[in-house]
Amino acid sequence: MSPRLCISLGAALAALAVGLGAFGAHGLKDQLPQWYTEPGRAAEMLANWETAVRYQMYAAIGIVLVGLWSAQRTGRRPIWSAMNLLVGTLLFSGMLYGWVLTESKTLVMIVPLGGLAMIAGWLIFAVQAFLDREPAQ
């Protein structure tokens, strides 16, 4: 994954997170109590939506950082870091969004895999940055 692609993809994921956050705050906030009538359930599901948005934004920022960092390097690029953050976002946030909208137990069971992929992405980036001996250009 090229630095430009990382930066563009991360920025697009961040924009989508803002849009989905606004949708949750304005659209779902009023809709969820109609879908989930059990006391406290609508608030719980809205909190899950907000968690998905927050973690998507964290990963988006991470992908942009990977792109900016790797643009100043030659040779090996931290493709695995960016890919893990991207896949983690799709699995973690995407499945949480799906769960809130459908309450599918299958979707929510996938969420931890996304979290593990995000953790791996951040750790790979940390290790590669720590071990990098090449000075910034």
Explain what the structure shows.
There is one protein chain. With 137 residues, the chain is an all-alpha fold. The protein has one domain (3-131). Helix content is 84%, strand content 0%. It contains four helices and no strands. It has helices at 3-35, 41-71, 79-102, 105-131. α1 (3-35) packs antiparallel against α2 (41-71), α2 (41-71) packs antiparallel against α3 (79-102) and α3 (79-102) packs antiparallel against α4. The longest helix has 33 residues, at 3-35. The radius of gyration is 17 Å and the shape is elongated. The model has no long low-confidence stretch (mean pLDDT 92).
What level of helicity do the residues show? over 70%
How far apart the termini lie comes to 20 Å
| Poorly predicted runs of 5 or more residues | none
Shape: elongated
Structural class: mainly alpha
**Count of the domains:** 1
Mean pLDDT over all positions: 92
Number of strands: 0
Give the assembly state of these chains.
single chain
**What would you report as the Rg, rounded to the nearest angstrom?**
17 Å
Strand content: under 5%
Name the helix and strand elements from N-terminus to C-terminus, one letter apiece.
Answer: HHHH
Largest sheet: none
The helix count comes to: 4
